[in-house]
Predict the 3D structure of the following.
Amino acid sequence: MGVKPTCRLPRVLTAAAFLCLIVAAGFQTMQSGALELTIVDGDSGLPTPARIELVDNDGKGCIADDALLTGGDCSHCSGLPECPELSQAMLEKLPLRQSKTITNNYTRTNQFYSTGKSRFASLPAGSYALRVYKGFEFNVAERRFRIGSGEDLKVTVPLSRWINLEQQGWYSADDHLHIPRPVTALNPSLSKWMQAEDVRVANLLQLGESTEFQSSPQYAFGKQSWYREGDYLLATGQENPRTDFRGHGIILGANSAVNFPNAYLIYSKFWGEAKRQGALSGYAHLGVAVGATYGLAIDLPSGLLDFLEVLQFTFGEQWWAWYEILNTGFRLAPTAGTDYPCLPSYPGAERFYTKVEGPLTYEAWLEGVRRGRTFVTNGPMLEFRVAGKDMGDEVLFDKPATVTVEGRIRFDPSRDSIHALELVEKGEILRSFPRLNNSAEISFRVPYEVKSSSWLAVRARGQKMSEAPFRLSLAHSAPVYVTLRGAPPLSQQPLAKTMARIWLARLADFKARLAEDKVQYLLSPSGPETTEAVIRRDRTALLREIEVARAKYLDLAGR
């Protein structure tokens, strides 16, 4: 803080002496203060990790001296003819691109993560605005305070909940995080980071492509990768296989890494091995990005897929790709993930909740996803039942009947403004229930006539408050499947036949792109996730897979 200037004043105040007084006084006003910040859980009173924004009068974000180091990694050696094997020593030294500062693209401010206690050794005297975030279930805490010259200020901020889904057996997750974890020593700090976002199940995906499978490396797969602090879990998963023209696949819960470098484009090998290991398989990026429509067209009839990532970043309402799948008679659970840091977001900004039977374990969580007991959200919280059955369940009827359908959405009005809660039947809006009187929830209870086999779900749409313009508030439940015995199942209804013809057209288009003289055009212009040699090597097997899928769609289409 420097040495305070001293002035010995004569009896008559000379110009020099007057200047000395001004310097001394100026020094006093320019002295820094210190801040000790403690964030506590409002129920337990214990320190709790959180994401913090501290802004001075000029709008500049201040970062604590002991802020958590955070960061992910999307780098890879794509395009090289051969990627070197990484030794353990190299893995331990891999740069994690860690930083104490995070730039929040939604609020356009700099923020940081705290373990629950943070120290600023030197802050300029002045006024400050503080915001404390902890996922979606906690209220945002706001404070304004002033630090005086030379003051050592202590501020304690309790966090309160507006909802507690754990009490109802629902646990949040991000299924798409690229955060290197080459050594176990990283687990405690990574867990604190996920706790700060209240992400209960964080799936850390090792990233692959046809030439290598070692980006964003994890020290282990299976149970050896699981790390737990309270009801917060870290687990290794993988985004592999991954190509621009077949889509990006995710595998969760495998006991060992799943990779077939000598048959990389034959995704069924990956899904089959994942199933053998008791793991879950699905497609990333809403099923519409980077060629996923081709991959889904081939893989859906196999019955080896479990989920589809239907909410991510600011892509908006891309539910249609998932609706196409459901209307063809295939059942995939909806999940959500941020693809952090490959997309400019932060962990848990898009997430999904899973209903877990009994205590939270990774095995029980996987089973909840497998059963389709999920909903996706970037803030609002959903409830949905048909004849007392929850999301992901099936309701069986021997004859037509009238049942009760119930739905509810709750949200924090300071962050989300929901316009309506919509009841959806086979992708079409059946009823819409608007928000009334600026309420923080919308609910309905209506009769529904079961006349045929179908699926029902609820979804919500609104506007994010205090965030980047045009960012939507979105939430969507998993379906409840309604089955009328003796009536045509979804796969035999006219809509499924129409969809089967659409899937056939996609297969025909993909087959045309696999022609000998067109293979090179499948390569990505931004840096290939595979090579022309790999495509030519796997081309014959891939064409066989297309024909197998084509036969099943022809059967669905009634040809």
In short: The longest strand covers residues 232-243. Confidence is low (pLDDT under 50) at residues 1-29, 77-96. The chain has nine helices and 29 strands.
